[in-house]
Amino acid sequence: MGKDTSTLLSTLMGAGLKVEEIKKTSKSLEDVYLDIVQKGREQAE
Question: In whole angstroms, what is the distance from residue 28 CA to residue 43 CA?
Fold first, then answer.
Protein backbone atom coordinates (compact mmCIF):
# COMPACT_ATOMS: atom_id res chain seq x y z
CA MET A 1 0.00 0.00 0.00
CA GLY A 2 2.85 2.37 0.79
CA LYS A 3 4.15 2.56 -2.76
CA ASP A 4 0.64 2.94 -4.18
CA THR A 5 -0.15 5.75 -1.75
CA SER A 6 3.11 7.50 -2.62
CA THR A 7 2.33 7.24 -6.32
CA LEU A 8 -1.21 8.46 -5.70
CA LEU A 9 0.03 11.47 -3.75
CA SER A 10 2.50 12.27 -6.52
CA THR A 11 -0.31 12.07 -9.07
CA LEU A 12 -2.54 14.33 -7.00
CA MET A 13 0.23 16.88 -6.45
CA GLY A 14 0.98 16.71 -10.16
CA ALA A 15 -2.64 17.68 -10.71
CA GLY A 16 -2.04 20.86 -8.73
CA LEU A 17 -3.19 19.76 -5.29
CA LYS A 18 -1.12 20.34 -2.18
CA VAL A 19 -0.85 17.59 0.40
CA GLU A 20 -2.48 19.88 2.97
CA GLU A 21 -5.52 20.30 0.73
CA ILE A 22 -5.75 16.55 0.27
CA LYS A 23 -5.58 15.99 4.03
CA LYS A 24 -8.30 18.59 4.66
CA THR A 25 -10.77 17.01 2.30
CA SER A 26 -13.42 14.71 3.73
CA LYS A 27 -13.15 12.47 0.69
CA SER A 28 -10.84 9.50 0.65
CA LEU A 29 -7.72 9.75 -1.50
CA GLU A 30 -9.27 7.24 -3.85
CA ASP A 31 -12.34 9.43 -4.35
CA VAL A 32 -10.17 12.48 -4.99
CA TYR A 33 -8.09 10.50 -7.46
CA LEU A 34 -11.17 9.20 -9.27
CA ASP A 35 -12.54 12.76 -9.49
CA ILE A 36 -9.28 13.93 -11.07
CA VAL A 37 -9.27 11.03 -13.52
CA GLN A 38 -12.88 11.79 -14.46
CA LYS A 39 -12.10 15.49 -15.00
CA GLY A 40 -9.09 14.54 -17.10
CA ARG A 41 -11.24 12.34 -19.29
CA GLU A 42 -13.83 15.09 -19.70
CA GLN A 43 -11.13 17.59 -20.71
CA ALA A 44 -9.67 15.09 -23.18
CA GLU A 45 -12.98 14.64 -24.98
Answer: 23
Q: What's the pLDDT band for 14 if we cut at 50, 70, 90?
A: confident
Global pTM exceeds 0.85: no
Amino acid symbol at 23 = K
- Distance between CA 21 and CA 3 in Å, rounded? 21
Domain count, the chain: 1
Rounded Cα distance, 19 and 37, in Å: 18
Range of the domain at 9: 2-44
Query: What letter represents residue 27's amino acid?
Result: K
Of 29, 2, 35, the closest CA to residue 19 belongs to 29
